[in-house]
Amino acid sequence: MYWGKNYWGGTGIMGSLHDRPYAFIACSFVSLCLLSASCSGSQSPSSGTLALSLTDAPAPGYQALYVTIAEVQVHRAGTPETEWFSVCSPETTFNLMELLNGSLDPVGAASLEAGTYTGMRIILGRSPDRELNILDHAHPHANYLVTASGAEIELKVQRGFAPGILIEHPFTVDPLYTTELVLDFDALHSVAKTGSAGAMLLKPVIKVVDIAQSATVSGSALDRDGNALAGVRVSAQTLGAATATGSTAGATLTDDSGSYLLHVEPGTRLQPRTHLLVAYADGYAPACRKLTAPYVMNYPAEFILEPAPMGTITCRISLPRGRADTTAVVEFRQPAPGTGSDLVTIKTFTAGENGSYDIALPAGTYTVAAACEGSENVVEGIPTGGLVSVSF
Asked: Could you give the count of Cα atoms lying within 13 Å of 294 in the half-sphere of its Cβ?
């Protein structure tokens, strides 16, 4: 995940199909895509199939978050930088908040020349499709959110993304099998308030997930009495991330039954990848589990959350002057229980305007880490009830 540039990318992190509860989704979307009118290309002995779908790391607090994708293009290694190949033109408005726990929405597929590709470009639409939204309204904008109160607020696309969202993620198209990639849209880090009253900025943060080279974690979040907890944010984080560049590799929210499914990068048997799994919801203390993932498979992980008193930290943000559509990502971290000095992110938000932000957190002391356009600030020892100033 890249911060402070006009592109974001990532490495593949999904899971083994036979081990995951949502296997039927991942298996079926390829055939659906191939039948889609938006897909192009014909198969030849020297070509292979690339199939794309969309998922989301949702943001709590919204009923819906709609993004319209007009076209997806890819760049083949060894060709001019200006030469891009169209995979599909869905012209579809997607509700990212519906894509919980491994749910996938087909975007498109195409036959491409076999070989290595350096990345892709996602072009957002300027007009929505003709479907109705969750309020049974026609889409008022191409990109917008629906708040908890039912307000429909347009998302202004940051200027740097007008030519398309560039994602640096090398992949190979093989003539022997279908290459299945998932565009994992991080809604929490992609939306921010900006200068005008009530205005919202869309600064897309997307990583690419390769189904064939990934693992999953699944389970549930319960309270101490065994009741299911919906809306708990479960994230996989990097051990010891003490800088402000971001420690979260993936995240999701539990559904109404308290269940979740999360994608993680597995590593290898000799060099397994280790993550800290963190489950958090307001009103509860965070629960943590360490996961070592050497194989592409599903790893079970259950969480029981204990009630905790809440407090507030006021975060005063000063963004760089003279830069339009600038945002800062702010994380509140604590040592993970049982891991000593390893820090985990309890809560994060994106600020798109100067001012004070009151952040509700379990009572305690936090490290506040902020990043903006390549600059970083880390402030330690901030207690709930306190104030922290972050200037860029």
From this structure: 3
Closest CA to 376 of 391, 357, 360, 355: 391
Domain range for 334 is 310-391
Whole-number Å distance between alpha carbons of 300 and 130: 40
Domain boundary among 264, 283, 305: 305
Q: Is 4 among the domain residues?
A: no
At residue 44, the pLDDT reads 53
CA distance 370 to 174: 41
User: Domain end: 168, 189, 213, which one?
Assistant: 213
Please give the Cα distance from 351 to 328 (Å, whole number): 5
113-134 confidence digits (pLDDT tens)? 999 999 999 999 999 999 999 9
Strands across the sheet containing 233-238: 248-253, 233-238, 273-280, 287-293
Q: Is residue 387 part of a domain?
A: yes
Structure tokens at 246: 């971001």
Q: Are strands 259-264 and 178-186 parallel, antiparallel or unpaired?
A: unpaired
Q: Kindly state whether residues 116 and 134 are assigned to the same domain.
A: yes
pLDDT tens for each residue of 3-60: 333 333 333 333 333 343 433 334 444 444 443 434 444 455 589 999 999 887 767 7
Query: Measured between alpha carbons, how far is 351 from 319 in angstroms, rounded to an integer?
Result: 9
Cα separation, 33 vs 55, whole angstroms? 15
Whether residue 212 contacts residue 27, with contact meaning beta carbons closer than 8 Å, is answered with: no
What CA–CA distances, in Å, run from 324 to 157, 171, 191, 245, 372? 12, 33, 15, 21, 13
**Exposed/middle/buried for residue 59 (C-beta within 10 Å: 0-12, 13-18, 19+):** buried
Distance of CA 182 to the CA centre of its chain: 11
Q: How many CB atoms lie within 10 A of CB 175?
A: 15
**CA 102 centroid distance within chain:** 12
Largest CA distance in the chain: 65
Q: Across all residues in the chain, what is the average pLDDT? A: 82
Residues 227 and 295 in one domain: yes
259: domain CATH number is: 2.60.40.1120
